[in-house]
Design a protein that fits this description.
This protein starts with a strand and ends with a strand. Strands 1, 4, 5, 6, 7, 8 and 9 form a seven-stranded antiparallel beta sheet that branches. The model has no long low-confidence stretch (mean pLDDT 96). The protein is an alpha+beta fold. The longest helix has 13 residues. The chain has one domain: endopeptidase fold (from Nostoc punctiforme) (Alpha-Beta Complex), CATH 3.90.1720. A hairpin with a 2-residue loop joins strand 2 and strand 3. Helix 1 crosses helix 2.
Length: 164
């Protein structure tokens, strides 16, 4: 039976603070394989819920570089997993900037309409959002400093589920 569990936003942010400017050796580094941003975000989400979804192809999990789901390290696949997940692991709803909280995810879009970068919200004070991310490593960077983004989507992590 699946049960709902809370998402620990503080644990996700603490993980981001610890690893935003370096790499956790437990995970592969995707910097030279298209970017490490979503891999890092998945690590943060995992720190906040401690549950993976081992559904083949459409789940969200990481065992090692050769045993992981596409959603662990791909911007679009992570989005599709989070927004449609009805099984184990974290799940989200799209929201607006004002409703973003610590531990939520922002994804940036380019001029062609492709989402290309994932960021973790570290704080949101009156709409002034600070983020943490990999590939171009930042901790507490203002979201407004991303001038090249053609748009953003805001993913509010509602919670997670696990098998009881």
């Amino acid at each position: 039976m699946l049960i709902s569990i809370p998402y620990n936003r503080e644990a996700a942010a603490a993980y981001a603070e610890r690893w935003a400017l370096s790499r956790n050796p437990r995970y592969a580094n995707f910097d030279n394989m298209g970017g490490d941003c979503t891999n890092f975000i998945s690590q943060c989400l995992y720190a906040g819920c401690r549950v993976m979804n081992y559904t083949p192809v459409y789940g969200w999990y990481y065992n090692n570089l050769n045993s992981r789901s596409p959603s662990w390290s791909s911007v679009e696949y992570l989005y599709k997993f989070l927004i449609t997940n009805e099984g184990a692991g974290p799940f989200c709803v799209e929201t607006d900037r004002e409703h973003m909280q610590i531990g939520d995810v922002v994804q940036l879009r380019d001029e062609s309409g492709r989402y290309y970068h994932s960021l973790l919200v570290m704080s949101n004070t009156n709409g002034n959002i600070l983020i943490a991310c990999h590939t171009y490593d930042y901790l507490n960077r203002p979201l407004d400093s991303y001038t090249s983004a053609a748009g953003m989507r805001y993913l509010h992590i509602v919670g997670a589920r696990k098998w009881a």
